[in-house]
Amino acid sequence: MRRAESINLKPHSEIRNSMAAIRTQREIRQRAPWWLVALLVLNFGLMTYDARDAETKQRKIRSLAQTIMYPLQQGTSSTSGWIGGFFGRITELRRASTENEQLRKRVTDMEAELRDTRARAAEATRLEALLKLSTGTQYQSIAAHVIARDPSMWFGGLTIDKGRWAGIEVNMPVVSPGGIVGRVVSTSPLSSQVMLVTDERSGGGAVVGELNQSTAMGSIKGMGESGLLDLRYVSGLEKVQIGDMVKTTGQDGIYPAGYNVGEVIEVRPGSATQPLLIHVRPSAGLERLKEVAVLTYRPPPRTESDQALPNLDKKNKQ
């Protein structure tokens, strides 16, 4: 019975094996074209890779790859170039802004330095003029800077930075290269107060023209706020013209003789009994003074007479 079963099972296994073989052959026939295509593609790729240009001896696959990649490379390059240029321009703008700010600062510093240089040059010129004024006279002078002004109409004055410790005394004349400025009215150890010649309380002897050549002598008095001088007591018979220069006489006990007072700007006629009306503009430039010179001038002492008319003497005793 066992033999019969083995005999019956044998045909079934053979059938299964034959069927498996049939499926394998069928699959091989189905896949064969794809393998053939793959082999052909591989062969074509190898042939293409190895193919070279006759002139350049360069592989054609490389040229083909470069041709295919060129648009992509160009687009990438343009994009990266634009991005790089954009950020580069931002950096350049920042650098230009920084450089511009630095240049502005340098220009500002140079302008300030130029102003300081011009101011020092102008001061040196003024001090040189004061030095010439000092060397051109027989009186010693003390140079001083104007540190304050009093422009009120009742008292036109200056404050200078030199006082008693520098040798300045009350009533000393103050001058500039242009002419007389005024006189010292008060002092402290380190500063002095100067009454301008235009002050209404100021006065002094003056002459139109040169002292030894003109008889048009009178007295100047300040006109206050107008900034002018009134030349009084000049005879109506004298010939005075606009533009004539007025100088000090040295007879007032304040200013030495020969210094400029100012220029005649107005003349009204007079008569034998009525003096001329003369207005004078000071030549010292009082409105823009920055440095002045104080003259260590002391008027000569006046000697008293030891003789007098008898009638005058009796009158004085009475």
Folded structure, characterized:
- The structure is a single chain.
- Residues 1-9 have low confidence and may be disordered.
- The protein contains 3 helices and 12 strands.
- It has a domain at 141-295: Thrombin, subunit H, CATH 2.40.10.340.
- The strands form 2 sheets. It has a 6-stranded antiparallel beta barrel. It has a 6-stranded antiparallel beta barrel with strand order 6-7-8-11-10-9.
- It has helices at 2-50, 60-135, 310-317, and strands at 141-151, 156-160, 173-176, 179-187, 192-196, 203-208, 217-222, 229-232, 245-248, 260-268, 277-282, 291-295.
CATH level-1 class of the domain at 141-295:
Mainly Beta
- Strand percentage lies at 15-25%
Order of H and E elements: HHEEEEEEEEEEEEH
The main sheet comes to: 6 strands, antiparallel, barrel
The tally of helices reads 3
Number of strands: 12
Mean pLDDT: 77
* CATH topology-level fold name of the domain at 141-295: Thrombin, subunit H
CATH architecture assignment of the domain at 141-295 = Beta Barrel
State the oligomer.
single chain
Overall radius of gyration: 57 Å
Low-confidence stretches: 1-9
Structural class: alpha+beta
CATH H-level superfamily of the domain at 141-295 = Rod shape-determining protein MreC, domain 1
Summarize, please.
It is built from three helices and twelve strands.
Q: Layout of helices and strands, plus pairs?
A:
Blueprint: H1 2-50, H2 60-135, E1 141-151, E2 156-160, E3 173-176, E4 179-187, E5 192-196, E6 203-208, E7 217-222, E8 229-232, E9 245-248, E10 260-268, E11 277-282, E12 291-295, H3 310-317
Antiparallel strand pairs: 1-2, 1-12, 2-5, 3-4, 3-12, 4-5, 6-7, 6-9, 7-8, 8-11, 9-10, 10-11
